[in-house]
Amino acid sequence: MRWRGRRPAAGDPGPGKPGSARPGSGDPGSVEASGPAAIAAGGDVINSPTHVDVYQAVPLPRAEEVDPPRGAPSNLRFGTELFVGRSAELAELDAALAGPGGAVVQAVHGLGGVGKSTLAARWARQHADAHVLTWWITADSAANITAGLAELAGVLVPEMTRSTPAAPGAVPVQERAAWARRWLASHAGWLVVLDNVTDPGDVAELVAGAPAGRFLITSRLREGWHDIAPALIKLDVLSESDALDLLRGVLTVGRPASGPGAGVPTGLEKGAELCAELGWLPLAVKQAAAFVRQAHLTPEDYLELYRANPAAIYDRAARGSDSATIALIWRITLDTLAESTPLAGELLRIMAWWAPETIPRTLPTPITDPVTDPVGLATALGELAAYNMITLSPETISVHRLVQAVARTPDPRDPHRQPADIDTARHHATTLLHQATPADTDDPAGWPTWRSLLPHIDALAEHADPDTDTTTTSLLLDSAALFLHEQGAIARAIAYYQRALASNQRLHGPDHPDTLTSRNNLAGAYYEAGDLERAIPLLEATLTDRERVLGNDHPNTLASRNNLAGAYYASGDLGRAIPLLKATLTDQERVLGDDHPDTLISRSNLAYAYQEAGDLGRAIPLLEATLTDQERVLGNDHPRTLASRSNLAGAYQEAGDLGRAIPLHQQTLTDRERVLGNDHPDTLISRSNLAYAYQEAGDLERAIPLLEATLTDQERVLGNDHPRTLTSRSNLARAYQEAGDLGRAIPLHQQTLTDQERVLGNDHPHTLTSRNNLAHAYQAAGDLKRAIPLLEATLTDRERVLGNDHPHTLTSRNNLAGAYYEAGDLERAIPLLEATLTDRERVLGNDHPNTLISRSNLAGAYQEAGDLGRAIPLLEATLAGCRRVLGEDHPLTKTVRENLEGAG
Question: Which residues form a coiled coil (predicted)?
Answer without folding.
Answer: none
